[in-house]
Write a structure and sequence with these properties.
Strand order of the largest sheet: 1-2-3-4
Shape: elongated
Mean pLDDT: 83
Largest sheet: 4 strands, mixed
Number of helices: 2
Distance between the termini: 42 Å
Length: 90
C-alpha cells in the first residue's frame, strides 16, 4: 500500500494503482462534500472492483458571540473578527 497526499487528502492506495487514478477518485469524493474529506482508503476487491472508504471531518464548530448562535462561517465580517479576537481562558 502506498500513502500519499492528493489535493490535501491523505490517500492510502494499492501499489499497483497510479496516482492519477487515485486523484480521480479523490476529486469525485470532494464533489460530494467539498472541503470535508480528510482521508481516503482505496482497495481493490477480489472481484476487480475498486472499494473507496472516505473519511470525513464531521466536526462543526458553533460559537455564541454577542447574541449570535451559528457556525462561524455564517457570521458577518464584523462578527468573524470578534470571534477571532476572543481570548481563550483555561
Amino acid at each position: 500500500m502506498k500513502i500519499s497526499i492528493i489535493l490535501g487528502v491523505k490517500v492510502t492506495r494499492p501499489n499497483s494503482m497510479p496516482e492519477a487514478e487515485a486523484s480521480e477518485y479523490v476529486e469525485d469524493q470532494l464533489k460530494v462534500r467539498k472541503g470535508k474529506l480528510v482521508a481516503m482508503d482505496i482497495k481493490l476487491a477480489d472481484d476487480g472492483f475498486v472499494e473507496l472508504h472516505p473519511h470525513y471531518d464531521s466536526v462543526i464548530r458553533i460559537r455564541r458571540i454577542t447574541g449570535y448562535l451559528s457556525e462561524v462561517k455564517n457570521f458577518n465580517p464584523a462578527k468573524q473578527d470578534e470571534a477571532a479576537a476572543r481570548v481563550v481562558h483555561e
